[in-house]
Specification:
binds cobalt (II) ion; alpha+beta; 8-stranded mixed β-sheet; single chain; globular
């Protein structure tokens, strides 16, 4: 049912420092400028790799949903993985029919398409983001 792995989300205390790591340690040159999703409490950018992306996310504001994660993982850490789906509403219904806990109503994510998150308890401890394929 799921399509390609779109990206791996990594929470970091500083996007600028993390970008430097990908540039200087891993030699990546294609990294997007940081953007902000104020309503979702994150700054983000994408490290573009030949076959996928790393999404760097930094908390924005006191109510950021990743503040708790960074309190537990002060240096940052792997936060979620994101798979593409054709239709987010269909995917949400499918997941809920299977008994999975979907954490939000579909909303626009960093790629400009609809996303939902599925609780880690349903996926071996991994927070899963599903996003509609960019058409
Ligand atoms: Co993501």
């Amino acid at each position: 049912m799921i399509g390609p792995l779109n990206h791996v989300g990594v929470a970091v205390p500083s996007i600028e420092e993390a970008v430097n790591t990908y540039k200087n340690l891993y030699g990546v040159t294609d990294i997007t400028e940081p953007g902000e999703m104020i309503d979702q409490g994150v700054r983000y950018c994408f490290v573009n790799l030949p076959n996928s992306q790393i999404e760097l996310i930094e908390p924005l504001g006191d109510n950021s949903p990743i503040n708790n994660f960074l309190e537990k993982n002060p240096k940052g850490g792997q936060h979620h993985i994101c798979f593409e789906v054709e239709d987010i509403h269909e995917a949400k219904k499918y997941m809920e029919d299977k008994g999975a806990k979907v954490l939000n109503e579909p909303r626009i994510g960093a790629h400009g398409t609809l996303i939902i998150f599925v609780h880690p308890k349903n996926s071996n401890g991994v927070l899963v983001e599903l996003m509609e394929t960019l058409k």
